[in-house]
Amino acid sequence: MVFQGNMTRWLKLANTVKLRALLRQSQAGTGAYVQAELAKIQAEGSGFLNAGESANVQPGYLVTAGKQNPFWEAYYRTAAGIVTANFTDLRPTEFILSEYQRLNDPRLARLYARTSAGQYRGVVFGAPATSGTTFNRANTSTFLGPRENNNLAGGFLRAPSSRRCS
């Protein structure tokens, strides 16, 4: 499934992962070791993954009932495009919303919907479902999927055939 058996790309992936580790090690004062390992990679000759080359896997998800990305199908929409009950239960916490607001993070509006009162409201982590109306579905923000976000990925919801939702 990955690289269709192309060993050169497998070597490039290994070199790319090793390069990532070497970049971190370079911060630890191990310059001679890092240089020696980079020389080995260069001598081997395969190089690194280039733009457009990745190790992404598409396991064959389709926009068909039972064949969509399982997360999408369980927590967003069915193959017929109907919102699932689980999607309406997914809510951000007050903490994460307050952090996005404190940092003036532009992703806030791309990830979560405002409530009918025009604010971002989350739930209290660990609060029981019977904690009253303050944190019920009608009074808290929902996650945005592509349909609610001008056909743009809404955080972890990308597409029913996407190999991942994040």
Protein architecture, described:
The protein is mainly alpha-helical. It has 2 domains: 3-44; 70-148, no CATH class. Helices cover 35% and strands 0% of the residues. It has 6 helices and no strands. It has helices at residues 7-26, 31-44, 70-75, 85-89, 94-102, 108-111. Helix 1 runs antiparallel to helix 2 (31-44). The chain is flat and about 65 Å long.
What characteristics describe this protein?
mainly alpha, 2 domains, single chain, 6 helices, 166 residues, flat
Gist?
The chain is built from six helices and no strands. It has 166 residues and is mainly alpha-helical.
End-to-end Cα distance: 20 Å
Anisotropy-based shape: flat
Which secondary-structure class do the elements indicate? mainly alpha
Biggest beta sheet summary? none
Instruction: List the domain count as a whole number.
Output: 2
Strand content: under 5%
List SSEs in N-to-C order. HHHHHH
* Oligomeric grouping of the chains: single chain
**What is the helix fraction of residues, given as a range?**
25-40%
Number of helices: 6
Low-confidence stretches: none
Mean pLDDT figure = 86
Strand element count = 0
